[in-house]
Amino acid sequence: MSKNKTTIGDFSILPISIPPVSSYARPVLHHLYVRRNAPKVPTENDSRSLFLANVPVDSTDLHLRGIFTALVGAGRFEGVTFEDERKSGSYLRPDDVLPAQALRLAVHSKKRKREEDKEKDREKEESLSRLPPTWTRPLHRTGSTAVVLLADEKSVERALKAIAKTHKTRQYPTWGAAVADRVPPLGSRWLRAHARLSYPDRSVVEESVNTFFTMFNRREKEAAELAKRLRNEPDEDGFVTVTRGGGGPGGKGAPARMSEAEEARRKMLEKEEKKRTELNNFYRFQLRERKKAEQAELLKRFEEDRKKVAAMREKRGKFRPET
After folding, report:
1. Is residue 64 part of a domain?
2. Whether the model pTM is above 0.85
3. Contact 21, 105 (CB under 8 A)
4. Family, per the entry (predicted)?
5. pLDDT tens across 25-58, in order?
6. DSSP assignment of 126-170, as one string?
7. Looking at the 3D structure of the chain, how many domains does it have?
């Protein structure tokens, strides 16, 4: 990369000084690429957020907070969302493995009002259903991305100007300068901690598994009861949940599969389209008949006028004026 280059396309280049470590005793420069955040699906915070590419693998919230504090001052950095968190989250949510029937009815469940204490109980239950993490500190893939949220749009402007200024002053922010011992260490201690956390206490595992299956069974029961209630209950748009016959799981009280619902919807649309086409054809038939009648009437009048003219010509031919 050219030493004088400060931008690549829409990205501003931010050199970051990586201090020496025991495994590599020389300082190096890491280039972070920064631009205004412009996702395909806009959000309300786009104007005050920055998109970062080539994020260091050991990045944490504290590392990036230190970088942007050095650029725009304290109190401007609000948070960061890393690429792996945007794609799948840091853990598997219980909702990802709930009964299929419960997932199909999730939209109806969300419409019900929940009290705050019930919501807190659910969050606590979900927390207990997750196994404890096995890594004290996550690592990101090489060249990953992140979105940094700042206090306001003015902070974004200040950050981009500060990045441009670093190329003139050669005073680059130092990676991890404000972190110190506030994050778990990497290296051999990190791997030893992972080996220890990979074998949690049996009581912790039992509590997590029992809590998960209790939640799974309760939500499956709630989904079955909700399906039974919705079988003949129209929603706010006047539609009734499509159901299929048969007993037992997936029987009378269960909602139809997506393919069955789509097939029913397709048949309904075809029926409506057929009615509309028949109605349009009926009107067109009337229009054609009316035009034919008007044309016949014009031809009739034309023939009558032609006969009158012929009669007048014949009468005029026999007339002889007196001399």
Report:
1. yes
2. no
3. no
4. Belongs to the RRP7 family.
5. 898 999 999 999 999 989 999 999 999 999 999 9
6. HHHHSPPPS-SS----TTEEEEEEESSHHHHHHHHHHHHHHHHH-
7. 2
